[in-house]
C-alpha cells in the first residue's frame, strides 16, 4: 500500500467514537407555557421491554441512512404524535458514550404551533408526558451519586503478553448518576445528566 491509498482512506474522514455498538438520538424539547419555558419529559409505557416506567426524552436508535438530527426528529414525531412542522431544532449538545458502548446524541429544540396540553403521545411507547420549568433546574442542583467502575478480567486473559502480568495496574473509574425530584417525578440517569448539561450551558 502506498501513501496515496492511505490518504484516500483517511483524508476528510469524520471522526467517530471507537467501539460504539449502537447510536441513539434524543430531543430535549422546550415548550412555552404562559411566560415560562419548560422542558417536556416522557414517562415511558410500562409494557416496554427497555426501561419501562422510567422518565426519558423523546428519542431512539438511529436508523441506517439517517443523520442523528433526523433520528431525533423522527422519534419525537412518532412518540409525541406531532408533525415535523411542530419541531424547530436549536442545536446539538455534547454526546454521551455509555458504559455499555452506546452513543447518545442529544439535540435541543422547541415544540411550536401546538399546546402541550393538546399533545396526545403514542400510548404504545409513552404513558404520559409532563413538563418542568427551566427555572426549576437553574435554581435546584441535582443530587449526585457515584458508581465505581472496575474491570472484570476473563479467566483466559493473556497476562503473559503484558508487562507485570497479573500485577498489571488497571485503571478504575467513577460513573456519575444525577437525580432531580420534581413533584414526585424522579428524573435520573442519562436523562438527568443531559438535563444538567443543558442547564450548565445556559446558566
UniProtKB/TrEMBL annotation:
GO MF annotations, alphabetized: coenzyme A diphosphatase activity; metal ion binding
Naturally occurring in which organism (per UniProt): Tepidimicrobium xylanilyticum
What residue stretches are annotated with the Nudix hydrolase domain? 21-154
Answer whether the UniProt record assigns the keyword Metal-binding to this protein.
yes
Show the PROSITE patterns listed in the entry: NUDIX, NUDIX_BOX
Q: What is this protein called?
A: NUDIX domain-containing protein
Name its co-factor(s): Mn(2+); Mg(2+)
Keywords in alphabetical order, please: Hydrolase, Magnesium, Manganese, Metal-binding
